[in-house]
From TrEMBL:
Protein source organism: Candidatus Pristimantibacillus lignocellulolyticus
Record Pfam families: LapA_dom
Protein name as annotated: Lipopolysaccharide assembly protein LapA domain-containing protein
InterPro entries to which the protein is assigned, alphabetical: LapA_dom (IPR010445)
UniProt keyword list: Cell membrane, Membrane, Transmembrane, Transmembrane helix
GO cellular component: plasma membrane
The keyword Cell membrane is annotated on this UniProt entry: yes
Lipopolysaccharide assembly protein A domain: residues covered: 24-79
Segments crossing the lipid bilayer: 41-66
Length: 109
């Protein structure tokens, strides 16, 4: 459901940008580091929007890649805890709860 809303918002945003670009068709001067040129404002708006979207998408893909690597690393680490159907991490959790209860009793005295 969330992805459908995101897709709908993306279409609305694209429509607003397209309408805004079509309204602004007069030529403008664009200055580069090495020179300048005159081009219709519609092209400047569309290419700027496209470049911004590609940049955000690329950064999002990098973040997803990093998170996937972390998940794989944690899954390997978690698999190392499982021996003969018994999980050492469950024992650690139980021990931590016992220690916390002991500390709580000491504090309440």
């Amino acid at each position: 459901m969330k992805s459908q809303w995101m897709l709908l918002l993306a279409f609305v945003f694209a429509l607003v940008i397209a309408v805004f670009a079509v309204i602004n068709v007069e030529p403008v001067e664009v200055n580069f580091f090495f020179g300048h040129t005159s081009t219709p404002l519609i092209l400047v708006i569309l290419f700027s929007t496209l470049f911004g979207g590609l940049t955000v998408g690329a950064l999002g893909l990098v973040r997803v890649y990093v998170l996937q690597r972390k998940v794989k690393q944690y899954e390997k680490q978690l698999a190392g805890f499982n021996v003969d159907g018994h999980t050492d991490y469950e024992e650690v959790i139980v021990e931590d709860k016992k220690e916390a209860a002991t500390e709580q009793e000491d504090l309440s005295k």
